[in-house]
Write a structure and sequence with these properties.
The chain has 693 residues and is an alpha/beta fold. The protein folds into five domains: 91 residues, 3-Layer(aba) Sandwich (GIY-YIG endonuclease); 201 residues, 3-Layer(aba) Sandwich (Rossmann fold), CATH 3.40.50; 192 residues, 3-Layer(aba) Sandwich (Rossmann fold); 58 residues, no CATH class; 90 residues, Alpha-Beta Plaits (2-Layer Sandwich), CATH 3.30.70.100. The protein is built from 18 helices and 28 strands. It has a seven-stranded parallel sheet, sandwiched between helices. It has a six-stranded parallel sheet with strand order 13-23-22-14-21-20, with helices on both faces. A five-stranded antiparallel sheet has the order 2-1-4-3-5. A hairpin with a 6-residue loop joins strand 17 and strand 18. The longest helix is centred in the C-terminal third of the chain and has 21 residues. The protein is globular, with a radius of gyration of 27 Å. 44% of the residues are buried. The structure holds adenosine-5'-diphosphate and zinc ion (ZN) (2 copies). The site of one zinc ion has 8 residues, from loops. It catalyses: ATP + H2O = ADP + phosphate + H(+); Couples ATP hydrolysis with the unwinding of duplex DNA by translocating in the 3'-5' direction. Its EC number is 5.6.2.4. Belongs to the helicase family. PriA subfamily. Component of the replication restart primosome.
Length: 693
């Protein structure tokens, strides 16, 4: 490599994995002075990679020996210092290299373009932005008093009239949270600031985009003034929308968790809708929480962040209790629509003849039938897809296990397959038991597919529709199915948690959760929190329409079929009492020293054998001692083997977040070294603030 006479040396964040030991930004030579945040291409080994010039000084006398920057994207304004701070913080907090994180969150197409190609893009974008669209002034409802209070409080934060504490906007489905987001966004836009709105699901972005566009089309007539950012966009769309945000053209950005890293030089407000949703946590690579980073980003910029939920995460709720967050409550549904009455259906009280062995009990079928006769829509909720979770041979006790995982393969009847939901291994259903040849192999248990079939059999003539990950695999299917529900072409909707999220089903008057008990006895301490949120959300799908209540229709209702009707979770659910539920759960968490009263990280290791994974974790545990940090013995992952890889994990716990962070800072570099010495082939990762343990 030729050495050049360079005037400047620069630090560049490049996509070198943290595990390579190339942790921070690397030093390069540059003929021109480069502002921090500039995008460049640099050599690394034999490759040439995208990089970001990083703030901070380089040893001046080094410049002569450094490899030069290959190309500079000088048509593009540098990334803002605040963006670099966010990445520095996130990389440090989640124990990744800053270059790896930058490359994961920048639009993938940037990596492939040359500076000239990017400039041609940019020109296209300018032409696009020149034509404005006409739109009528929107109709805005008069705010209810609690909404007005919430908006005033957030506005004060935008204009700087008050200091900004994160706002927890607490209100059930239909209480008017989205209207508060819209008004707060309007205030930020009027102040010349950009707005970022995060939603948990890609599927929810079109709906939200429509609502924001309807409201702001007149105020923001320029194309690309409102854009979305999520992983289902084409690479070209994603780059275009990202650039629009970076250039300040996009005033309002709606997106999923990756949008928390959007470059927004004039950001003035962040909204995190359904802030409790687990999908805000990235589950591989840099395992960041977009919700937590949103709070950090807002704090760093001294701007308001609004976290909205009917069932806040217990972390956020505890922050509100302690006063770190400001809780603003919307206590009623807009228009006085009632929440559905919750009926806890005691499975123990049913006679055997009522069909306790099937999810479709006689009383449930009778209720569905009478709703059907009155022309009302119902939702039957079961959080398990497929036909049955396992096939079983009554002769030899064979079960449809996955040869590559410690899990059963799920029976999918429609395409006659046995499919592993962990590794994807799929085979045709055998005609006879593969072990003993018995022809009488039978499904055990039920998933949504079987429920759909049983409902159609039990209620002839009913139009039954199933919505889950299987029924919506192809593009456009979910939209078409939701439309059928909205248009009243469906009598009974069967679905997984997918249907409980956000979708506004105005016609549904009856919701049944047929088999939710499993989560009560999970080893995951967050399972009850998730179940409560899911059931509240499922119930929120019913009876949003006060007019229909007034119109003398049967009351909207939610049934929960349970063997544990006295369980405090269900008792709180029956009264729609999140506050009580949260208090109970937090008391338990406090006495068990669980989050939010302690702070956790997981060290995960994957290898061909459990012994190799365990040996790595055992050695890791011996590398660093800290009297205030507890390192638990390694245990197998809940699904220990996936795709022939054994997964072990080890919990690290500290009373103070800072203590845990300090420990990880010292520990992780020694793990990189340990891995290097380790003979067995092995992958490892640290998960800070893990959601599932
Ligand atoms: P959430 O986001 O809490 O589910 P929304 O903001 O979507 O609640 O409000 C529920 C419904 O009530 C929506 O149709 C919305 O347009 C309407 N709405 C919200 N606020 C008001 C208001 N102040 N006056 C009249 N209708 C309202
Ligand atoms: Zn058999
Ligand atoms: Zn498998």
């Amino acid at each position: 490599m030729p050495e050049i006479q360079a005037r400047a040396a620069v630090r560049v964040a490049v996509d070198a994995p943290q595990h390579s030991g190339l942790n921070g930004p690397l030093d390069y030579a540059s003929e021109q002075a480069l502002a921090p945040g500039s995008l460049v291409r640099v050599p690394l080994g034999k490759r040439e990679l995208l990089g970001v010039v990083w703030p901070g000084a380089v040893e001046p006398d080094q410049a002569l020996t450094l490899r030069p920057v290959t190309a500079v994207f000088d048509a593009l304004a540098p990334l803002h210092a605040a963006w670099c701070r966010l990445l520095d913080f996130a990389a440090g907090y989640y124990q990744r290299s800053v270059g790896e994180l930058a490359s994961a969150v920048l639009p993938p197409q940037l990596r492939e373009l040359s500076p000239d190609q990017l400039a041609a893009r940019l020109r296209k974008l300018e032409r696009k932005a020149a034509k404005a669209v006409e739109a009528a002034a929107p109709v805005k409802p008069a705010l209810a008093p609690e909404q007005a209070d919430a908006v005033a409080r957030i506005e004060a934060g935008i204009t700087g009239a008050a200091a900004n504490r994160p706002v927890l906007l607490f209100g059930v489905t239909g209480s008017g949270k989205t209207e508060v987001y819209l008004r707060a966004a309007e205030a930020a836009l009027a102040a010349g600031r950009q707005v970022l709105v995060l939603v948990p699901e890609i599927n929810l972005t079109p709906q939200l985009e429509a609502r924001f566009t309807e409201r702001f089309a007149a105020l923001l007539p320029e194309p690309l003034a409102i854009v979305s950012l999520h992983s289902a966009l084409t690479p070209a769309q994603r780059l275009q929308n990202w650039l629009a945000a970076h250039l300040g053209r996009a005033r309002l950005v709606l997106g999923t968790r990756l949008a928390v890293f959007a470059s927004l030089p004039q950001l003035g407000l962040i909204v995190v809708d359904e802030e409790h949703d687990p999908s805000y946590k990235q589950q591989d690579g840099a395992r960041y929480s977009a919700r937590d980073l949103a709070v950090w980003r807002a704090h760093d910029l001294k701007i308001p962040v609004v976290l909205g939920s009917a069932t806040p995460s217990l972390e956020s709720w505890q922050h509100a209790e302690s006063g770190r967050y400001e809780r603003l409550t919307l206590s009623a549904r807009i228009g006085g629509g009632a929440l559905p009455r919750v009926r806890l259906f005691d499975m123990k009280a049913l006679p055997a003849s009522a069909g306790v062995t099937t999810a479709l009990t006689a009383p449930l079928l009778a209720e569905l039938k009478s709703r059907l006769e009155r022309g009302e829509q119902s939702l039957v909720f079961l959080n398990r897809r497929g036909y049955a979770p396992v096939l079983h041979c009554g002769e030899c006790q064979w079960k449809s296990d996955c040869p590559h995982c410690s899990a059963w393969r799920v029976f999918h009847k429609r395409d006659r397959t046995l499919r592993c939901h962990h590794c994807g291994f799929t085979e045709r259903v055998p005609r006879a038991c593969p072990n003993c040849g018995n022809h009488d192999i039978a499904p055990i248990g039920r998933g949504t597919e079987r429920l759909e079939e049983q409902l159609a059999e039990a209620l002839p003539g009913a139009r039954v529709l199933r919505i889950d990950a299987d029924s919506t695999r192809r593009k456009g299917e979910l939209e078409a199915q939701l439309k059928a529900v909205h248009d009243g072409e469906v009598d009974i909707l069967v679905g997984t948690q997918m249907v409980t999220k956000g979708h506004d089903f105005r016609r549904i008057r009856f919701v049944a959760a047929v088999n939710p008990d499993g989560a009560l006895f999970s080893s995951d301490f967050r399972a009850p929190e998730r179940l409560f949120a899911l059931l509240m959300q499922a119930g929120g799908r019913a009876g949003r329409d006060a007019e229909r209540d007034a119109g003398g229709e049967s009351p909207s209702e939610m049934w929960v079929q349970t063997w544990h009707r006295d369980h405090p979770l269900y008792q709180a659910l029956a009264r729609h009492d999140y506050v009580r539920f949260a208090a109970d759960q937090l008391a338990e968490r406090r006495s068990a020293s669980l989050p939010p009263f302690s702070h956790l990280a997981l060290l995960r290791a994957e290898a061909r054998t459990a012994e190799a994974a365990k040996a790595f974790l055992d050695a890791a545990a011996g590398l660093l001692q800290d009297g205030q940090v507890l390192v638990y013995p390694p245990v197998p992952h809940a699904v220990a083997r996936v795709a022939d890889v054994e997964r072990m994990q080890m919990l690290v716990e500290a009373g103070q977040r800072a203590r845990l962070q300090a420990f990880l800072r010292d520990w992780v570099p020694t793990l990189i070294e340990l891995k290097r010495q380790h003979k067995a082939v092995l992958r490892w990762a640290v998960d800070v603030d893990p959601l599932a343990i």
